[in-house]
Known about the structure:
By secondary structure, this protein is mostly helical. Helices cover about 70% and strands about 5% of the residues. The chain has one domain. The chain has a two-stranded antiparallel sheet with strand order 1-2. Strand 1 and strand 2 form a beta hairpin. Helix 1 packs across helix 2 (about 25-50) and helix 7 runs antiparallel to helix 8. The chain is globular, with a radius of gyration of 19 Å. The chain starts with a helix and ends with a helix.
Amino acid sequence: MGNFFRRTLTAVWIVIFVLGGFWLHPISFFFTGLVILGGVQYEYYSIVRNMVIRPQMITGILAGSLLYILSTLIAASVIPVIYLLFMVPAVTVIIIAELYRKGERPFDSIAHTLFGILYLAVPLSMLPFSAFSRSGLGSIISHSRDFSPGIVVGFFLILWANDTGAYLTGISLGRHRLMERISPKKSWEGFFGGTLIAILAAWLLSGWLGVVNTTGWIVIALLISVAGTFGDLAESMLKRSAGVKDSGTIMPGHGGFLDRFDSAVLSFPLVFLFISLFG
């Protein structure tokens, strides 16, 4: 009961931080995404270091943050898209810096440093493009920008519905393992239970969220359920390779940032692609 209470209390604070941050105002939207990005990159590089590989944590996080900042400014029409080319010298610095570190496995370090940007910074840098120059659900605090956090708010609500449904169904009905060698606790029953709850949440929220019709949001729920599950399994594979249980301890009962957002980094790009094509 103590662990359940701790998980529940932490989950409430996660909802307040994520939902409140993204929904409150464009500025809070920006900083919420930046904090999440910094957290997941830090934990990713920390996990990799358990495999006797020394990725460039500081330069990797700075390069990821640069990509997120540039994406926000471009999405807000403050600077033109050509400014994304600033990522070229950022990547060049990472490669050159490795020459001076004298590590035993320099190309492993470069690979993991760059993969931390591709795996985490690129997906999260799509968040601003889903909000700026969009109409629909407005921010809590009024402002003059053409901005709607509706896609991101809807995404996380459906993602959490899926996670909750999968967890409750899995612990009560789970019998058939989904991928036991990677994640022994995940079950097919949990997967289908989470998917059904996600579809129900999408159906209930679709009229309020807008952007796409009810059918569109149901498709988004399916994308979240399938891609989110693979995202969770991918992080479990990473942790098993490194011999760690959780990515961090900052969220009692839930692990770290990467444990909470592993599903999002794989599923949100697909959701953004779908909305960009059909929204």
